């Protein structure tokens, strides 16, 4: 991935995820996986928050983070 522009941060994604993004954006107007992820996150953040995650969503998120080795 390219160097992050000034005022931005780098987020690491599993290679498998990046390959899936590359496959999904092939033939679209997105120049890179970075551009696609930035677009998706911006859209997600435009939606009003309902106050947080449901218990089920939080459990799924914790299980996923644990499986990726981010938490114990």
Notable characteristics:
72 residues, mainly alpha, 3 helices, 53% helix, 0% strand, globular
Main sheet, how many strands, which sense, barrel?
Answer: none
What is the average per-residue confidence, as pLDDT, rounded to a whole number?
A: 85
- Helical run tally: 3
Morphology: globular
Number of strands: 0
DSSP strand (E) fraction? under 5%
- The structure class reads mainly alpha
Order of helices and strands: HHH
Tell me about this structure.
The protein is mainly α and 72 residues long. The protein has a domain of 38 residues. It has 3 helices and no strands. The chain is globular. The model has no long low-confidence stretch (mean pLDDT 85).
Quick take:
By secondary structure, the protein is mainly α.
List the helices and strands and how they pair.
Elements: H1 15-25, H2 33-46, H3 55-67
